[in-house]
Amino acid sequence: ENNKEGVSAMIQKFSRLTRLVLENSMNQLVPFQNDWRSLQLYIELEQMRYADDFRVIYNVQDQILDGEYFIPPMIIQPFVENAIIHGLRNKADQGGILNLSARLQNEYIIVEVQDNGIGRARAAELRGKNSIQKKSLGIKITQDRISIFNNLKQNKKVNVEIEDLPGGTKVTIAMPAN
Fold it and tell me: Which is the most buried residue in 24, 80, 84, 110, by most CB within 10 A?
């Protein structure tokens, strides 16, 4: 569409995201605010990609962003990606909402990723009808990384719970507040 400003903005965001991902991937733990910023950039890119078909509501305790909390990198992003790609993108209307929250609770950082998309059962049904079958590796790799992290930490472990809602999906990730 010859939208030079839009393309420039997207390339700048992609460049910042790539740089953050590379920096974060070199460490076993990263500051929460770094991982959160890369997550926001990823979401902004997806909103540009899908012409703002969904909106995002952030609810993060200031204490987490202002504090010196460290988490394993790139644990949250694959669940956000699934919410957008499988839940919200396939929603018939453009009323998609992605709720992201983070809070401290009992020495854990609790992150919730909730969407009002089509849900996991309907998304799996649509994938089954797709003639081009693609193996999804994001969650599998994330589960492997969580397992490795949990094997290194004897006392506090990362835990992920996935809940099917009447309209959408909710993922709760509990990470030790290091």
Answer: 84
